[in-house]
Amino acid sequence: MSNRKLVVGLAGYGVVGSGFARALEENRDLLYRRTGCDIVIKTVVAKESEANLAHPLPQGAEFLHDIDAISNDPEIDLAVELMGGMGVAAKFIRKCLENGKHVVTANKALLAEDGLDFFRLAGEKNLYLGYEASVCGGIPIVQTMREGLAGNRIMTLSGILNGTCNYILSAMTAKGQSFTDALKDAQRLGFAEADPTLDIEGLDAAHKLVLLIRLAWGVEYPFKDLPVQGISKVSAEDIGFAGELGYRIKLLGQARMTDGKLEAGVFPTLVHGESMLAKVDGSFNAVWVKGNAVGSVFLHGRGAGDLPTGSAVLADVMAVARGSLPNNTGFVAQQPLAATLLCPSQAISKHYFRLMVPDRPGVLRDVAGILAENGMSIAQAIQKGEEEIVPLVFMTHDAKTASVENALKTLHDKDLLRAEPVSYRVLAHQ
Ligand code: HSE
């Protein structure tokens, strides 16, 4: 075979960095057979001292603290950025691209919030900017969108994009736990970070959704404009009622293109129990895409972890080793077009409501009347309890978000609510 060699500099040696190095080492022969290229990690840069590294270094790699040792090294062909964060990582990626190095990164926050310049620069220099590991860890969704489904007009995309949230919601569903108890358990077992804000407030899923939207439609949904709601207010009570109605509550990232308008957001959403997304449990991720030619495609797998995410990094590194042409955005243009956004208040879906109301004659009539005045038709209802304040639970037929908001405001103004109302969207079933 050939004597080709790909020299890699690795910045960041935590869980993912060491997983990538391990997968590379364990599968070395296979990688050579597949690429005809010897992939060598020349330099590892991390902020820890070498003695404190949790994982052994790749054989023959030099360990350093200065990331310029990668960006300035003319022998390094490809930089793998697995440090995370914004400032230092951004400078590093820019410098590597300017110096003619291909870049592979798992940095979804940077690419989603501030990534367009990197795609422009990589495009101008004909360099590979790989980010398979940024979206759903080991699930090959970037390559699938960029290549496997490239011939499709994508209609909808719905995904469980955050394993921490899915783990917590699954535990709440299986054990009837509160959010707080399920989060504590998840932290104790290593499924949630000590500071879980990015995950539980939906921001991590939102970063991934922005990247998926670019891949699906070649357009930009500005991160700051994306409607995002996390799971910290989801209660065991609502999970219970959703279950009685035949649904599970999942944190979904969703996007759909209707009549040229893009609607997207991250929300706790009721998913029908028979849907494949409802069956995705624990820390797993899944993405369900509908294309006009292929129909439905469902991908499921591990969204985090050393070897699964390492596998995604490796796929990008191997694309460079094969000498594949860069296809970073999946479109000829390396800058996405501005999306025509559907105003979030005009989004249409079925809705779940839980309203805490005084248990007095006529209250059901009053509430149903207000929903009807706002064009909402009730599909299912549950009323339980014999206390002074009782939950009224409804599932509606399709309704606009604006109608839902207006109905809730009227219910509040007419003093019919005794607690903060709960309303969640319901995913259209297959
Ligand atoms: N923290 C993420 C999750 C994995 O819980 O899915 C990295 O994005």
Count of helical regions: 15
Low-confidence stretches at least 5 residues in length (pLDDT < 50)? none
Question: What is the first-to-last residue Cα distance?
Answer: 48 Å
Strand content: 25-35%
Write the layout of secondary structure elements.
Blueprint: E1 4-11, H1 15-26, H2 28-35, E2 37-45, E3 62-64, H3 68-71, E4 78-81, H4 87-98, E5 102-105, H5 108-114, H6 116-124, E6 129-130, H7 141-148, E7 154-160, H8 163-175, H9 179-188, H10 197-200, H11 203-217, E8 219-220, H12 236-244, E9 247-258, E10 261-272, E11 284-291, E12 295-302, H13 306-322, E13 337-338, E14 348-358, H14 363-373, E15 378-383, E16 389-396, E17 399-400, H15 401-413, E18 422-426
Parallel strand pairs: 1-2, 1-4, 2-3, 4-5, 5-6, 8-13, 10-18
Antiparallel strand pairs: 7-9, 7-11, 9-10, 11-12, 14-16, 14-17, 14-18, 15-16
Helix pairs in contact: 1-13, 5-11, 8-9, 14-15
Bound molecules: L-homoserine (HSE).
Q: What this model shows, in words?
A:
With 430 residues, the chain is an alpha/beta fold. It contains 15 helices and 18 strands. It has helices at 15-26, 28-35, 68-71, 87-98, 108-114, 116-124, 141-148, 163-175, 179-188, 197-200, 203-217, 236-244, 306-322, 363-373, 401-413; strands at 4-11, 37-45, 62-64, 78-81, 102-105, 129-130, 154-160, 219-220, 247-258, 261-272, 284-291, 295-302, 337-338, 348-358, 378-383, 389-396, 399-400, 422-426. The longest helix has 17 residues, at 306-322. The termini are far apart. Bound molecules: L-homoserine (HSE). L-homoserine binds next to helix 8. L-homoserine binds at residues 162-164, 199, 204, 303-304.
